[in-house]
Amino acid sequence: MTAILNIKDLRKTYAGGFEALKGVTLDIEEGEILALLGPNGAGKTTLISTVCGLVTPTAGTVTVGGHDSQRDYRAARELIGLVPQEVNLEPFEKVWNTVRFTRGLFGKPRDDAKLEQILRKLSLWDKKDSAVKELSGGMKRRVLIAKALSHEPRILFLDEPTAGVDVALRKDMWDIVAELKADGVTIILTTHYIEEAEAIADRVGVITRGDLLLVEEKAALMQQMGQKQLEVELVAPVSTIPAALAPFGLELGAEGRSLIYSYDTRAERTGITKLLNAIADAGLTLRDVKTRQSSLEDIFVNLVSEEPA
After folding, report:
1. Residue 176 pLDDT more than 80?
2. How many CB atoms lie under 10 A from the CB of residue 197?
């Protein structure tokens, strides 16, 4: 696939010397969904703001659809839609006028059919004549997305799109994102919700302290860095792990009712057969055995905690 967004050695240092971005390099392919994960202050919003032209970089380049974001700002910005974290809408304006006004800001000709299509896709058509202040929080976020899509961008940035919405609305937003991807829109989202990245992203990037630690295919990331745990439930609880099982690095489960064994999914041999034989030799009787795959959250926490302060 062709990269629609090229970020090269992007840096941002604010007055006072704070480095918000430390040489971020990233290529984003057309039609993909990239999730950027990172704690508060990691640089996620600064990165988005810089790509969108809202923040001037200290160094580095951003190329959007072949247009340099500094030298050819208007052409680059026209390809981008931005849904910010904060819901900043004119409360007394109608939904229809709000979206139509944004399209006009980009110099696009009037196209009521296109705007109707966008509002219908976002389940906002029946709210088109409602004042923004009459809408729920979830509906206001949909209006933000409609505004961002009104000029038909090829790239959509979603900065914490489901912050503060309930679980049902969050899953609705995931469905919307999937539909936009099907329409060929490239989507970059920042999120605190690990399950959000796990559910909808093609690739996952982890950023902290202004450094982009990695960008990887979601499935490959979990395969390469994920571990599995084998939990062996015992018929009779134990107070300590038998000395004969020490080489396996086991953990004792709640109330001593299980033994937990962690192993690398990439290893040629997991050691499970040897472990089970050793447990039997130690005189312990199994009730049940189950496995658990490391989640993206586990991987994220490990990466961030390993990053030096």
Report:
1. yes
2. 25
